């Protein structure tokens, strides 16, 4: 007998089955508060308006029995200039992320519910363009059956390992006493029970999280209004039942240096959010996690899950398992989704900084102001910075888990198809582009962070075209030009680019190069900081002015070597 599917599109319909869903989650093989209606409805209340989202929740029944629950939502998102797609996503994928969610299915119904979902989604393909489930628990049996059926229907399916997930420490292993492994953690203060105390702890967590993520030049996922509302609502509610607590470690004369939010999830405890003072918190994260592990064991929990945040903290010496997350993307067969997929392969996202360090003298800025004032109505102009490196390596210490190597075409061809696909997706590359650069002799540096592609840098020699100027650089036989330095979004803020540039400098010196150049857009603050950290020097500003069919390059100050490089 086939399963019957019910599609819920409004909040009233979802609230009508809230009690039934709570019982279904509690009776499932892996019950979790984060998969239940309380967390999902609180998340929806916090994020629905900002996401302009609509419910798209599936319930699967075998007769009168509820056997499947797929909490999806629908929204319209921009995927490029003039490209918009209707997306279907998992509820709970924005803001603070608990251990990877999944489609909830009764044991033995994974294939039937996944197939039923795929059939209904295929029949409604005109209503959506992209099904994006990230993070999704890996492995997800129901998700795999659904993806296979959608692929058989002609939809484009792509999956890869996603960021996030969690590490789980076992607290009830025979022969291991948590108290023997975990020693005194110092001054730990706990906030629990009282709503006022919990809110005070949350306020401290948000402040320190902004400080920690800001040190990596990223925005904290806990700092926005929606995340604050969700965490406060859930923490106060669960805290009243003794299921939520915040704790902190203080350092004498400094104050708090580490804060964590822990939620008891059935027989497990989950460190849902954590923040550490980047300047004074060395070792504090491990001590605080150790204290929470001991407290969780005393409460009868069998494991402590630590959700990955701004960085991976060192854990106490307890048995550990990593729970990875998956990114599953399914594109329909429409022309708009094909265009969005193609555009995504070429897209470059750059960080724009409010304050970009000056790269030339005041005379260059004055000249630029005159050009802009005189030609605003008739000219198009762009400003770039020219950087020069003498290839002295600074010995920049790579972040933990970062590995660097030269990527040659033969190595690329010898990799598995999945490895090449991961590289293309993570680094937003195109195979034809890569082969074109290798054919002209470019040197390629590949960075991997915990065995996943994290960054790439290209280096050319000889007569090198620069599309931004519609002309070619004239490089000496011992000079090189560095271009298209790219860091995957998930790896930004970890000094990947400076490490690649330092590694590239050592490779160039081995090949008898003594100087390298780079041209960086005025608004690309992230690249400017990376090159300066790698000991590159700002030589001049380049103003590219176009007036009708005429274009002109202006170099200020008029450095002779810069003018020779540009053929002026």
Description:
The structure is a single chain. With 568 residues, the chain is of the alpha+beta class. The protein has 3 domains: 4-161 and 325-336, Aminopeptidase; 172-317, 3-Layer(aba) Sandwich (Aminopeptidase); 362-565, Gcn5-related N-acetyltransferase (GNAT) (Aminopeptidase, 3-Layer(aba) Sandwich), CATH 3.40.630. 34% of the residues lie in helices and 33% in strands. The protein is built from 17 helices and 23 strands. It has helices spanning 11-16, 18-26, 37-51, 110-123, 141-152, 178-181, 195-215, 225-239, 284-298, 335-346, 362-375, 409-414, 417-426, 431-439, 496-510, 525-533, 560-565, and strands spanning 4-8, 54-62, 65-80, 83-90, 104-105, 130-137, 156-170, 188-192, 244-251, 255-265, 268-276, 303-307, 320-331, 380-389, 402-406, 443-449, 452-460, 463-466, 471-474, 479-487, 515-521, 537-547, 550-556. The radius of gyration is 27 Å and the shape is globular. Residues 348-361 and 374-378 have low confidence and may be disordered.
Layout: helices, strands, pairs:
Elements: E1 4-8, H1 11-16, H2 18-26, H3 37-51, E2 54-62, E3 65-80, E4 83-90, E5 104-105, H4 110-123, E6 130-137, H5 141-152, E7 156-170, H6 178-181, E8 188-192, H7 195-215, H8 225-239, E9 244-251, E10 255-265, E11 268-276, H9 284-298, E12 303-307, E13 320-331, H10 335-346, H11 362-375, E14 380-389, E15 402-406, H12 409-414, H13 417-426, H14 431-439, E16 443-449, E17 452-460, E18 463-466, E19 471-474, E20 479-487, H15 496-510, E21 515-521, H16 525-533, E22 537-547, E23 550-556, H17 560-565
Parallel strand pairs: 4-6, 11-12, 20-21
Antiparallel strand pairs: 1-2, 2-3, 3-4, 3-5, 6-13, 7-12, 7-13, 8-9, 9-10, 10-11, 14-21, 14-22, 15-16, 16-17, 17-20, 18-19, 22-23
Helix pairs in contact: 3-8, 4-5, 7-8
């Amino acid at each position: 007998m086939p399963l019957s599917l019910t599609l819920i599109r409004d909040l009233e319909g979802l609230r009508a089955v809230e009690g039934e869903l709570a019982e279904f989650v509690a009776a499932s093989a892996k019950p979790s508060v984060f998969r239940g209606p309380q967390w999902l409805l609180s998340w929806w209340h916090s994020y629905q308006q900002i996401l302009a989202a609509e419910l798209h929740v599936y319930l699967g029944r075998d007769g009168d029995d509820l056997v499947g629950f797929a909490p999806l939502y629908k929204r319209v998102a921009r995927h490029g200039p003039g490209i918009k797609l209707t997306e279907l996503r998992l509820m709970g994928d924005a803001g603070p992320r608990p251990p990877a969610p999944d489609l909830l299915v009764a044991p033995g119904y994974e294939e039937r519910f996944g197939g039923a979902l795929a059939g209904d989604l295929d029949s409604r393909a005109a209503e959506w363009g992209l099904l994006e489930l990230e993070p999704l628990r890996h492995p997800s049996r129901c998700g795999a059956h659904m993806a296979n059926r959608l692929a058989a229907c002609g939809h484009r399916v792509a999956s890869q390992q996603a960021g996030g997930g969690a590490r789980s420490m076992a607290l009830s292993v025979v022969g291991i006493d948590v108290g023997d492994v975990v020693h005194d953690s110092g001054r730990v203060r706990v906030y629990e029970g009282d709503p006022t105390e919990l809110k005070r702890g949350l306020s401290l967590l948000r402040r320190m999280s902004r400080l920690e993520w800001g040190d990596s030049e990223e925005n904290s996922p806990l700092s926005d209004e929606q995340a604050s509302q969700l965490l406060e609502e859930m923490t106060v509610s669960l805290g009243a039942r003794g299921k939520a607590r915040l704790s902190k470690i203080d350092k004498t004369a400094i104050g708090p240096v580490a804060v964590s939010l822990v939620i008891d999830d059935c027989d497990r405890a989950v460190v849902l959010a954590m923040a550490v003072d980047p300047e004074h918190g060395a070792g504090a994260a491990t001590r605080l996690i150790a204290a929470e592990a001991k407290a969780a064991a005393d409460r009868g929990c069998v494991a402590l899950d630590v959700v990955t945040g701004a960085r991976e903290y060192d854990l106490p010496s307890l048995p550990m398992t990593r729970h990875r997350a998956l990114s599953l993307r399914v594109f329909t067969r429409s022309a708009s989704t094909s265009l969005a997929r193609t555009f995504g392969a070429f897209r470059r996202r750059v960080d724009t900084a409010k304050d970009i360090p000056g790269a030339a003298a005041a005379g260059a800025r004055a000249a630029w102001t005159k050009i802009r004032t005189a030609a605003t109505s008739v000219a198009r102009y762009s400003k770039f910075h020219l950087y020069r490196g003498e290839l002295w390596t600074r010995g920049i210490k790579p972040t933990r888990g970062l590995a660097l190597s030269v990527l040659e075409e033969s190595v690329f061809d010898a990799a598995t198809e999945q490895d090449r696909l991961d590289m293309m997706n993570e680094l937003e590359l195109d195979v034809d582009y890569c082969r074109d650069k290798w054919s002209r002799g470019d040197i390629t540096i590949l960075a991997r962070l915990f065995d996943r592609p994290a960054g790439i840098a290209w280096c050319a020699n000889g007569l090198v075209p620069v599309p931004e100027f519609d002309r070619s650089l004239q490089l000496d036989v011992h000079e090189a030009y560095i271009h298209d330095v790219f860091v995957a979004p998930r790896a930004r803020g970890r000094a990947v680019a400076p490490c690649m540039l330092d590694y590239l400098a050592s490779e160039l010196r081995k090949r008898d190069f003594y100087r390298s150049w780079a041209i960086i857009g005025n608004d690309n603050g992230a690249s400017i900081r990376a090159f300066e950290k790698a000991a590159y020097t700002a030589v001049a500003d380049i103003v590219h002015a176009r007036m009708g069919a005429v274009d002109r390059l202006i170099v200020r100050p008029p450095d002779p070597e810069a003018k020779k490089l540009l053929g002026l």
